[in-house]
Each structure stands twice: as C-alpha cells, then as structure tokens.
C-alpha cells in the first residue's frame, strides 16, 4: 500500500522536533550539528530570534491578501534588493523552481517584443540544477531528471561544463541568431560544488553583450551571502541581466525572487505573469529581515573568515583521511569534499557521528552550514567529520 505521503523522497531515518542555531534535536533527544542548513536554506540557522520575532509580528497583523492589491512588505523587500544589487525590478515567487520558469518567459519575451521572435533558444550546462518543473528539468537536461516525463519544453542547448578552452569555443559556437539567453550557476550546488572561474563569467558577459544575448545567473543555492559576498557573481566584478534567488533569502520561510534589469524585464507587462502566494506579507517580512542582516558588510566579512577557517580544517581532513577524501572545493561557506567513497555513505556515517551533511553529484559531500555558525561549532564539526571518516578506515 502506498504511504499517505507520496514516496518521492529517499528519506533518512531521522525526524527533528526543534532546532536552535546550528543544532537540531531529534525525536529521541539526540542533538545533531547541522551542516546542511536545509540545503542552504537556513542562512541564519534554526529559530533565529530576529526572524521568529519578525514572522510572529507580521502573522499577528496580516498573512495574505493576493497580488490584486499593493503589498507594502513586498515593496520594501524589492526596494532593499534593488538598492543592494544590479537589479531594477523584482518578481517574488515561493520557490527556486518558479524563478526558473519566469526567467525562461522573461528572456524569450524580451526578444519577441524587440522584433526577434525566433530567438527562443537558451544555452544551459551539464550538471546544472534549476528546479523540478517541466521547464526547469528541460533546462538541466540530464537523463536522471527527464527520463519518463514525455515531451519536454524545446529550445534548450546543453553544453559541457566550461572547464577548458575547447568548452569555451563550444559556447561561442552555440550562441546563434536563435539564442535568447545563457543560464548558468556561478557555483553549481547539486552538480558538485563546481565553481565557474571569474574570467569565465566575465567572458560570458562579454559574449552575451556582443551577441545581444541575455545572461541569466541561477544563484538559488550560491547566493544570499553564502560565498562571503551577497551574491557569488560579485567576486567576478560583473553582473547578469536576470538572476534567480531563493533558498537562503527566506531563512527557512518559502520565498524566491527573480531580479532583473529594466531592459531585460521590459517585455513583462501587466498580465504576463502572476502568482497567488508569491510575495505574500509573511514571506516578504521575513525576507526583508534576512536581507538586512546578511547584506551587512561586517556579516559578509565574517562569512568569508569562517569559510576560510572551515576550508583549512577540511584540507586537514583530506590530508588525514586520503582514502576517504580527495580534495576541497567551493567558496565561503559553500564547500564540498570530493570523496573517494560514495558521499551518501559519508552522509550516513555522519548520522552516527551526530553531524548532518548533504551529498551531491561528482562524488562530492556538501558542507552548507548556517552563515552565522559560531567558530566553536566549526571546530566541533571538524571533529565529527573526522569521526565519520574514521568509520571507513576501521571497516577497511
């Protein structure tokens, strides 16, 4: 008999009843150090007092009215994002997947309204993850995500991850008179914490400018302070035309956003897109508080410092356990351990050691802690990861 919850998740045998900071408490009372943060969602940890206060204050006033009316909390959050990013305008969603859908529409509509309805193709990259709607899986294109779902949305050109000059040449060749946009994650999360070098992002920007192509960054996982800048592309000193944001922006409350320049968004006029729940007062009140806290330069400086500290410790783990770990990847507090064993097995070993991590593709274990994780919790995390790695050596 099928369970009451559709069995689409391969769930761990753990259930948590409360959390505080970087720690979670399970039903049996055991505490776990959370290095997954809900897959980069709980940017400020569990039950952050400012977020709890903001949410409860807003809940006591107003929950939902729909986008038929002005929503002051939405306008405030949009103003904050416009003030602190490249963007001129923002559309709010409930999830990262929904941001992908709007980005596809926005890019194609831009060229349609500018007299080029033939420009519908979007260049995307192997290893990408842009969500699980039919449009988003068509953008990613991997067999694992698309098999069995029938005809997919057409208009995507899939290229290898840009790791060398041959791949860069392939990108140049793939942009034709039918191309409307290039979509890429500055750091792939699900794909294995693969970082696009700054010079590659700059090269993409130059190529898109030269060909009239829109550049779309998916910063759903790598954005909102995770790398030590508010958004990962800022390290490269350039900007996209459209950017997808979710996960950390709500600090655990469902919220996403599409940020765009006035030019890129020019085709999206009244009636071209909408959302029943997107940008509701609860989500936007929390989102504004997250943006205020995370965008503070002192906070971001601490993320960079903590990331360097954590990375140094992970490098030592690799040196101490060469049969388990191979290398460290990532930026800031978006880190990955390239494994010589199955990362899913390391995740399970972590359960015994009381530490929570997340597996990714390319044999990588993701380390995505709360951005405000205390130094002492980083030290404890390294002890517990060392213990988890030791299980493999004992078994050998």
Could you walk me through the main structural features you see in this protein, from its secondary elements to its overall organization?
- The protein is α/β, with parallel strands linked by helices and 396 residues long.
- It has two domains: 16-34 and 297-395, Aspartate Aminotransferase, domain 1 (Alpha-Beta Complex); 50-294, Aspartate Aminotransferase, domain 2, CATH 3.40.640.
- It contains twelve helices and 17 strands.
- The strands form four sheets. Strands 4-12-11-10-7-5-6 form a seven-stranded mixed β-sheet, sandwiched between helices. It has a four-stranded mixed β-sheet with strand order 1-2-3-15.
- Strand 13 (325-331) and strand 14 (334-339) form a beta hairpin.
- The protein is globular.
- The relative contact order is 0.16.
- The mean pLDDT is 96.
Compute the separation of the termini in Å. 39 Å
* Radius of gyration of CA atoms, rounded to a whole number: 21 Å
Mean model confidence by pLDDT: 96
Strand count, sense and barrel status of the largest sheet are: 7 strands, mixed
Tell me the CATH topology of the largest domain.
Aspartate Aminotransferase, domain 2
**Multimer state:** single chain
Relevant CATH superfamily of the largest domain:
Type I PLP-dependent aspartate aminotransferase-like (Major domain)
> What is the helix tally?
12
**What is the percent of helical residues?**
25-40%
Shape: globular
Order of helices and strands: EEEHHHEHEHHEHEEEHEEEHHEEHEEEH
Number of strands: 17
Report the CATH architecture of the largest domain.
3-Layer(aba) Sandwich
CATH class of the largest domain: Alpha Beta
Q: Report strand order across the widest sheet.
A: 4-12-11-10-7-5-6
């Amino acid at each position: 008999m099928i369970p009451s919850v559709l069995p689409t998740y391969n769930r761990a045998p753990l259930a948590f009843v409360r959390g505080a900071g970087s720690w979670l408490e399970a039903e049996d009372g055991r505490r776990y150090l959370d290095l997954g943060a809900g897959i980069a969602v709980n940017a400020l940890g569990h039950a952050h007092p400012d977020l709890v206060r903001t949410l409860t204050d807003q809940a006591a006033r107003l929950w939902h009215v729909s986008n038929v009316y002005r929503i002051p909390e939405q306008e405030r959050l949009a103003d904050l994002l416009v003030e602190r990013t490249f963007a001129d305008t923002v559309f709010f969603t409930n999830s990262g997947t929904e941001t992908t859908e709007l980005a596809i529409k926005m890019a194609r509509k831009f060229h349609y309204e500018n007299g080029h309805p033939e420009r519908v193709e979007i260049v995307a990259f192997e290893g990408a993850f842009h969500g699980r709607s039919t449009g988003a899986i068509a953008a990613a294109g991997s067999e694992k995500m698309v098999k069995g779902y029938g005809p997919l949305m057409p208009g995507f050109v899939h290229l290898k991850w840009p790791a060398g000059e041959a791949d860069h040449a392939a990108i140049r060749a793939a942009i034709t008179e039918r191309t409307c946009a290039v979509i890429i994650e500055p750091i792939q999360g699900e794909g294995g914490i693969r970082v696009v070098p700054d010079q590659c992002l700059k090269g993409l920007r130059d190529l898109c400018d030269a060909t009239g192509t829109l550049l779309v960054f998916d910063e759903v996982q790598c954005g909102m302070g995770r790398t030590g800048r508010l958004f990962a592309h800022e390290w490269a000193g350039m900007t996209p035309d459209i950017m997808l944001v979710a996960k950390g922006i709500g600090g655990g409350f469902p919220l996403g956003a599409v940020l765009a320049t006035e030019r890129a968004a020019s085709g999206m006029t009244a009636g071209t897109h909408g959302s029943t729940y997107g940008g509701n007062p609860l989500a936007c009140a929390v989102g504004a508080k997250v943006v205020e806290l995370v965008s503070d330069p002192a906070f971001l400086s601490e993320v960079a410092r903590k990331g360097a500290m954590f990375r140094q410790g992970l490098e030592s783990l690799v040196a101490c356990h060469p049969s388990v770990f191979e290398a460290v990847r990532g930026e800031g507090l978006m880190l990955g351990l390239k494994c010589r064993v199955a990362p899913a097995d390391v995740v399970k070993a972590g359960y015994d050691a009381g530490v929570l991590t997340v597996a990714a593709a390319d044999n990588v274990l993701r380390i995505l802690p709360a951005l405000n994780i205390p130094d002492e919790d980083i030290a404890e995390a390294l002890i517990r990861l060392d213990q988890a790695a030791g299980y493999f050596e004992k078994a050998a």
